[in-house]
Amino acid sequence: MNTVIKLEAAPLERPPVLNIRAARPGDLQQILDMMALHAECHGDCAKLTATDLDRDLFGPSPWVTALVAEACGRLIGYAILVPMYLAAEGRRGMELHQIFVRKDHRGTGIGHHLVARAREQARAAGCSYISVSAATGNFQAHRFYEEMNFKAGPVTGMRYIQALA
Q1: Which of 67, 43, 65, 47 is nearest to 56 (CA)?
Q2: Are 81 and 97 in contact (CB under 8 A)?
Q3: What is the pLDDT of residues 69-126, one digit of tens each?
Q4: CA 104 remoteness from chain centre
Q5: Which residues are CB-contacts of 13 (< 8 A; sequence separation ≥ 6)?
Q6: Which 3-state string (H, E, C) describes the chain?
Q7: Could you give the CA distance from residue 100 to residue 30 in angstroms, rounded to a whole number?
Q8: How far is it, in rounded angstroms, from Cα 97 to Cα 75?
Q9: pTM for this structure?
């Protein structure tokens, strides 16, 4: 009987110059490409268009904020932030809705830098907390968030959705 051991490629070294910054309109295509890769990682297909993303990031009423990790003129990661509100407590928060680092740069600390900048962004917006979720079986994400001092909370109730169109 043969045993097959799957070895993952070692990550590249972290780029010598890494810039975490707010997304700009010229970043749209690279962000869309990474969003497609993120969806693929989860067995999904991204349906987002450049028009949708442009509207939601840069339109007259921006809906989300995107931070990007840039090295050598190429985007290698992103984080999407969405406002939240605890009405009963009058507390603003920020949902770290998506975070992604290209496969060849994972394990080099870029995700940690994106989360740190997301925290700064949330504080600057007057938020008192940042929230993130991960699928039940996504143990790698669980470990990552726990390393970043996120605390797991109980999941209660059901989420219901109603289409408006």
Answers
A1: 65
A2: yes
A3: 999 899 999 999 999 999 999 999 999 999 999 999 999 999 999 999 999 999 999 9
A4: 17
A5: 108
A6: CCCCCCCCCCCCCCCCCCEEEECCHHHHHHHHHHHHHHHHHCCCCCCCCHHHHHHHHHCCCCCCEEEEEEECCEEEEEEEEEEEEECCCCEEEEEEEEEEECHHHCCCCHHHHHHHHHHHHHHHCCCCEEECCCCCCCHHHHHHHHHCCCCCCCCCCCCCCCCCC
A7: 12
A8: 18
A9: 0.85
| Tokens found for residue 56 | 């939601």
Strands 129-131 and 65-71: unpaired
